[in-house]
C-alpha cells in the first residue's frame, strides 16, 4: 500500500541515498569543527614573520642540480627549498632541504627551521617536531629559535599532544611576541582542558578574553569558555570589575567557578578593551548584546559606549553617552569620570558655547567632595590647557596649581610641574619660575623634559638679570645634548649672550665619549661568524633572513658597532624603518644626542636621508622655505615610504588625506585620484603646497607645522592666543601633547639635517 505523498525507491537506491545522507551529515559535522580546534589548513594558524617572508626567486637560468655539491649549488638548493616551503609546495621544499642537512655549515639552523615549517604546512606535524626541537631549545640564543618554539607548539597541538603543547606554550610565554601571544594562550587553554586541568584552562581563557578581546583567538577562546560552562566546570563566575584581579579570583571551596564571557561584567571588560584598542564598532556590537545588567553595569555600559563612539569620532553621540552614564548613577565613582569625558568631547568643538560648557563640567568635577587623584589630575590638566588655549594665563596658572601634591604617576606629576613652572614664566613671575624649574631638575632628573627645565630656568635667570648663571645652564644643555631640540635652542641663546659680552662659562665635566659608528673595536669571533652567516644568506637570495639574523645579533650585543651597522644597512635594504630606529638608538643613542657631523656621517643616509631632493626643491621654488623643513616633515610623516597608508587613511610620503589632496589639487588645477598619492612627484607637490598654504595663513613656522598635524581651525585659535608670546612659548604651550611633540621633533630634525649636510650646503 502506498501512502499518499510518499515515493518508494528500490532497496538498492534507498541504501545509496541513505549512505549519501550519512556522508553529507559527516561532512557537515566536519565543517562545523569547534572554533578552538586547530585549523584544517595549517597555514590558517597565525605564523611568525619568518614563515611569511616573500619567497626567494632564482633567476630562470639558475637550475638546481638534484645533488648539489658546490657551495653555490647548495645555496641555490637552499633558496629553492625555502621558496617551495613559503609558497605552495611545502612537502617538496622540506624534502629538498632534508637533502642539505649536514652540508651547509652555519646555515644548518635555517635548513632545519624551514624543513620543519614545510612538514608542518604539509600536514605532517609528527615529522616536524623532532626536526624543530633542537632549534626550539635554543630560543634565547638562535635567531630562529623563538619561531621554532612557536611552531613546535603548533605541531604538538596538531598532533594532539596536550602535555607537550602546554609545556612548550609555557616556555614560549616567558617572553611572548604580542602579535602571536593570543594564539598561544588559546592553544594552552585547549591543552589544559584536554588534560583535565580545567582551572588552568579557564585562567588562560580569562586572560585571553579580557586582555586581547579584539583577536580571532579571543573569539575562539570565548566559545570554548562557554562550552566549559555548559559542561559544568563550576558555576558562572561573578565577573571581576578590575582586570588586575582577573587571575586572582579564588572561592576557596572546591573548583573555581567557570569564566563566562557573556556575564555582564565580563562583557563590559571585553568591550572596554576593544574601545581602548580602537575597535569602536566591535565594542558597540558587544555592548548591544548586554543583558540582565544592574544599574551600575548600565552606567558603565553607557560610559564604555561613550569611549567607543569617541574613538570612532562620533563625538556628539559619545557626549550623549557619557551624559547618560553620569545620569544613571550620579552618586557612583564613575559619574565624575563620565562628566570629565563629556568635557573632552566638547574640546573637539570650536564653538564658544561648547568651550564654556567644557569649563563648567571640569570645574564641577573638581568641586566634587570625593578625592580621586587620578581624576583631579586629568581634570585640572585639561582645564589648564583649555584656559591656555583661550589666552587666560593667570586663570590657567591657578588651575595648574591644583596639579601639585596629587598621588599620581611620576610622569603625570612631571607634566603638572612643568606646566605650572612655564605658566609662572608666562605671567611674569620669573623668580618662582626659576625656583620651581630648579626643583624640577632635582625631582625629575630622568624625565624627557629635564633639558627643557634647564633651558627655561636659564631664560628665567636672564629675565632676572642673572646672565652668568643662565650661561652656565645653557652651556650644560648645549654641550651635553647638542643634537636635540633644547640643545639647539640653548646653543642659539648662549651664542647671543656671548656676543653681548657675557664671559664664556667655565667648562663643566666632560661627558663620556659616545659610541659612534666609526668606533674601533677589537675583532670578535662571534660577531664575525654572524656577519659571515648573513653574507651566506644574502648569497642564498635570503636577504630578509639575513636582516633577521643581524637584528637578533645586534640586540644581543648592543655594544658591537659592526653588528649594528650591518643590521642598519640590511634593514634599510629591506624597508624595515622601525627596525632601523631601534638599532640606531640602542647602539648609537649617545652619539645621536651629542655626536659631531663627522661622527654621525655613516648614519646620515640611513636616519636622515634627503630622498626625492629634486621634487622637494621644485615644490618649494620661490617660497623661501628651507628644503630641510620638508625633509623633516616627510621623515616624521612616513620616513620616506611612498606607499605607506595610515590607519586614518592618509597616504604617501606627506600623509595626505584623499579629500585634502583633491582640494589642494583643484587649487593647483589638477584632478587628483587617490591611487596617484603614492607617486612621490604628486604627493610632494600637493603636500608641500598644503604646508605652504598653512605657513602663509599662520605667519609662523611652528603654527604651520602644528596645523599640518592638528588641523587649521584648531591652530588658528592657538595662534590667536599664543603667537604673541613668541615662537618658543607657542611651542611649549600647544595644548595637544601629540602636536607639541610633533613640532619639536620636526624642528630638531631640521636642525640635524642642516648640521649633517652643512658641507653640501656651502
Oligomer: single chain
Count of DSSP strands: 0
* Radius of gyration over C-alpha positions, nearest whole angstrom: 31 Å
SS strand fraction:
under 5%
Low-confidence stretches: 1-31, 238-253
Helix and strand content put the structural class at: mainly alpha
Distance between the termini: 109 Å
Which percent range fits the helix content?
55-70%
Q: Can you tell me the overall shape?
A: globular
Mean pLDDT: 90
Total of DSSP H or I helical runs spanning 4+ residues:
38
Largest sheet: none
Protein traits:
single chain; 762 residues; mainly alpha
Structure explained in plain terms:
With 762 residues, the chain is mainly alpha-helical. The protein contains 38 helices and no strands. Helix 2 packs parallel to helix 4 (108-121), helix 5 (125-136) runs antiparallel to helix 6 and helix 8 (181-194) packs antiparallel against helix 9 (198-211). The chain is globular, with a radius of gyration of 31 Å. It starts with 10 loop residues before the first helix and ends with a helix.
Write the SSE topology.
Blueprint: H1 11-31, H2 71-86, H3 90-98, H4 108-121, H5 125-136, H6 145-158, H7 162-172, H8 181-194, H9 198-211, H10 216-230, H11 264-276, H12 280-288, H13 295-311, H14 315-328, H15 334-347, H16 352-367, H17 373-389, H18 393-400, H19 410-426, H20 430-443, H21 450-463, H22 467-480, H23 485-499, H24 525-539, H25 543-556, H26 561-574, H27 577-594, H28 597-600, H29 604-607, H30 613-620, H31 627-638, H32 658-667, H33 680-698, H34 701-710, H35 712-722, H36 727-732, H37 737-756, H38 758-761
Amino acid at each position: 500500500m502506498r501512502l499518499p505523498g510518499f515515493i518508494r525507491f528500490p532497496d538498492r537506491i534507498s541504501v545509496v541515498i541513505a549512505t549519501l545522507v550519512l556522508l553529507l551529515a559527516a561532512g557537515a559535522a566536519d565543517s562545523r569543527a569547534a572554533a578552538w580546534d586547530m585549523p584544517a589548513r595549517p597555514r590558517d594558524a597565525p605564523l611568525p614573520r619568518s614563515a611569511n617572508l616573500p619567497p626567494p626567486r632564482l633567476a630562470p637560468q639558475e637550475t638546481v642540480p638534484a645533488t648539489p655539491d658546490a657551495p653555490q649549488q647548495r645555496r641555490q638548493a637552499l633558496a629553492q627549498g625555502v621558496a617551495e616551503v613559503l609558497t605552495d609546495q611545502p612537502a617538496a621544499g622540506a624534502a629538498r632541504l632534508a637533502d642539505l642537512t649536514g652540508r651547509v655549515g652555519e646555515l644548518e639552523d635555517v635548513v632545519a627551521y624551514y624543513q620543519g615549517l614545510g612538514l608542518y604546512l604539509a600536514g605532517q606535524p609528527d615529522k616536524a617536531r623532532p626536526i624543530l626541537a633542537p632549534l626550539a631549545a635554543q630560543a634565547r640564543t638562535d635567531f630562529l629559535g623563538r619561531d621554532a618554539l612557536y611552531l613546535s607548539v603548533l605541531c604538538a597541538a596538531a598532533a594532539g599532544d596536550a602535555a607537550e603543547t602546554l609545556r612548550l606554550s609555557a616556555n614560549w610565554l616567558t617572553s611572548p611576541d604580542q602579535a602571536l601571544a593570543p594564539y598561544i594562550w588559546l592553544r594552552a587553554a585547549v591543552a589544559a582542558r584536554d588534560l583535565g586541568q580545567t582551572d588552568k584552562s579557564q585562567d588562560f581563557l580569562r586572560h585571553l578574553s579580557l586582555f586581547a578581546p579584539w583577536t580571532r583567538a579571543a573569539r575562539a577562546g570565548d566559545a570554548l569558555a562557554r562550552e566549559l560552562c555548559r559542561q559544568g566546570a563550576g558555576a558562572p563566575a561573578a565577573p571581576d570589575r578590575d582586570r588586575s584581579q582577573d587571575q586572582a579570583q579564588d572561592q576557596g571551596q572546591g573548583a573555581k567557578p567557570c569564566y563566562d564571557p557573556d556575564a555582564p561584567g565580563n562583557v563590559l571588560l571585553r568591550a572596554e578593551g576593544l574601545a581602548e584598542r580602537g575597535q569602536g564598532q566591535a565594542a558597540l556590537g558587544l555592548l548591544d548584546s548586554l543583558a540582565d545588567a544592574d544599574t551600575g553595569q548600565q552606567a558603565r555600559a553607557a560610559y564604555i559606549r561613550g569611549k567607543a563612539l569617541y574613538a570612532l569620532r562620533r563625538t556628539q553621540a559619545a557626549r550623549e553617552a557619557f551624559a547618560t552614564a553620569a545620569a544613571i548613577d550620579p552618586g557612583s565613582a564613575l559619574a565624575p569620570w563620565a562628566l570629565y569625558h563629556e568635557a573632552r568631547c566638547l574640546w573637539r568643538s570650536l564653538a564658544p558655547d561648547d568651550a564654556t560648557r567644557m569649563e563648567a563640567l571640569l570645574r564641577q568635577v573638581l568641586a566634587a567632595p570625593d578625592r580621586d587623584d587620578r581624576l583631579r589630575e586629568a581634570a585640572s590638566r585639561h582645564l589648564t590647557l583649555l584656559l591656555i588655549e583661550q589666552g587666560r594665563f593667570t586663570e590657567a596658572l591657578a588651575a595648574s596649581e591644583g596639579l601639585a601634591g596629587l598621588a599620581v604617576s611620576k610622569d603625570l606629576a612631571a607634566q603638572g610641574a612643568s606646566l605650572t613652572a612655564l605658566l609662572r614664566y608666562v605671567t611674569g613671575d620669573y623668580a618662582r619660575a626659576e625656583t620651581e624649574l630648579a626643583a624640577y631638575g632635582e625631582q625629575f632628573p630622568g624625565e624627557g623634559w629635564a633639558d627643557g627645565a634647564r633651558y627655561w630656568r636659564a631664560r628665567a635667570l636672564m629675565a632676572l638679570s642673572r646672565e652668568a648663571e643662565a650661561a652656565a645652564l645653557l652651556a650644560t644643555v648645549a654641550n651635553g645634548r647638542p643634537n636635540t631640540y633644547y640643545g639647539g635652542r640653548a646653543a642659539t641663546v648662549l651664542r647671543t649672550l656671548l656676543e653681548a659680552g657675557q664671559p664664556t662659562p667655565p667648562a663643566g665635566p666632560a661627558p663620556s665619549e659616545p659610541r659612534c659608528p666609526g668606533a674601533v673595536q677589537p675583532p670578535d669571533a662571534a660577531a664575525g661568524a654572524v656577519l659571515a652567516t648573513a653574507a651566506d644568506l644574502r648569497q642564498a637570495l635570503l636577504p630578509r633572513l639575513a636582516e633577521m639574523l643581524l637584528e637578533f645579533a645586534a640586540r644581543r650585543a648592543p655594544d658591537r658597532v659592526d653588528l649594528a651597522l650591518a643590521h642598519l644597512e640590511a634593514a634599510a635594504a629591506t624597508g624595515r624603518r622601525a627596525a632601523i630606529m631601534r638599532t640606531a638608538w640602542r647602539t648609537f643613542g649617545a652619539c645621536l644626542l651629542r655626536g659631531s657631523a663627522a661622527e654621525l656621517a655613516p648614519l646620515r643616509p640611513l636616519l636622515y636621508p634627503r630622498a626625492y631632493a629634486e621634487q622637494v626643491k621644485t615644490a618649494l621654488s620661490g617660497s623661501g622655505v628651507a628644503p630641510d623643513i620638508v625633509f623633516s616633515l616627510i621623515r616624521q610623516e612616513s620616513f620616506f615610504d611612498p606607499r605607506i597608508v595610515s590607519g586614518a587613511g592618509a597616504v604617501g610620503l606627506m600623509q595626505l588625506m584623499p579629500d585634502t589632496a583633491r582640494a589642494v589639487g583643484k587649487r593647483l588645477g589638477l584632478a587628483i585620484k587617490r591611487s596617484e598619492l603614492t607617486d612621490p612627484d604628486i604627493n610632494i607637490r600637493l603636500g608641500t603646497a598644503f604646508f605652504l598654504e598653512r605657513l602663509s595663513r599662520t605667519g609662523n613656522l611652528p603654527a604651520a607645522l602644528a596645523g599640518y598635524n592638528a588641523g587649521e581651525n584648531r591652530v588658528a585659535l592657538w595662534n590667536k592666543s599664543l603667537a604673541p608670546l613668541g615662537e618658543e612659548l607657542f611651542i611649549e604651550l600647544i595644548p595637544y601633547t601629540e602636536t607639541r611633540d610633533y613640532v619639536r621633533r620636526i624642528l630638531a630634525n631640521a636642525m640635524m639635517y642642516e648640521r649633517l649636510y652643512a658641507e653640501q650646503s656651502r
